[in-house]
Known about the structure:
Distance between the termini: 25 Å
CATH architecture of the largest domain: 4-Layer Sandwich
CATH class of the largest domain: Alpha Beta
CATH topology of the largest domain: Deoxyribonuclease I, Chain A
Largest sheet: 6 strands, mixed
CATH superfamily of the largest domain: Endonuclease/exonuclease/phosphatase
Radius of gyration: 21 Å
Number of strands: 12
Strand order of the largest sheet: 3-4-2-1-12-11
Shape: globular
Number of helices: 5
Structural class: alpha+beta
Amino acid sequence: MRPAYRRISLLISPFLFLTILCISSLMACAGHPGIDRTDVTAGDTPLTVRVLSYNIHHGEGVDGVFDLERLARVIMAVDPDLVALQEVDRATTRSSGVDQAAELGRLTGLYAVFGKAMDYAGGGYGEAILSRWPFLRVDDHLLPASEDHEPRAALKVTVEIGGSGREIVFIGTHLDHTRDPADRKAQVLRINELFLPETRLPMILAGDLNALPESEPMGILLREWADAAVGNPEPTIPSDDPARRIDYVLYRPAGVWRVVEVRVLDEEIASDHRPLLAVLELKDDR
Length: 286
């Protein structure tokens, strides 16, 4: 954003005017870390997207405390652009009636949207997405689930990487958690059916997939999506002593993205999952 300048009296020397101009520009650029990425101009620098996937356990830490401010601090410690949140409550009695997506949006200063997978405890339960950039489009898709299993959803948003003219699709989801993989298999097939035809835009799929890398549901996904953590497959659960990897950031098409960084955050208390950070670079293929 460029500051507006009023007409300066001709009595001010050209040198002084230029000095004032430079100081004003520097002051206008100061502020929240990462805000400068909102006004990216294509061609100036590579377009990077910082993605965080985090199952927040309906706001309750492993210490039994509901603490959204703590979760917001964990999220903002890595300055993300897009955040996929799972196990999010909205207006449930369990969470004291709080709209957790809206509150985390307020605490982080990011745009927020909630996608309901099911009714629960007087409110809703499902996914949420936080974004540095405004949502151009939002779609919440219910996924297939057996009658005796929890309903699941895939929350999809379209955003423009600020000021670049490049739009991407970001999808957050949480797959079935039971031992039987049948629902997870049906859910990943539905995800591919829903989103693979949208080949025009680059895509990122993030969430708690409740599936190990070698499982059949992951095999189905990885035929179409690339895994950001394939070279660094750190476990994500349980948060106090991680032993299994079930949280993922996937992307497609593989040729337009480059993985800059991927790591699991060292956070043991705020949730029963550890957050997964992936920094992706979008190549200029136009």
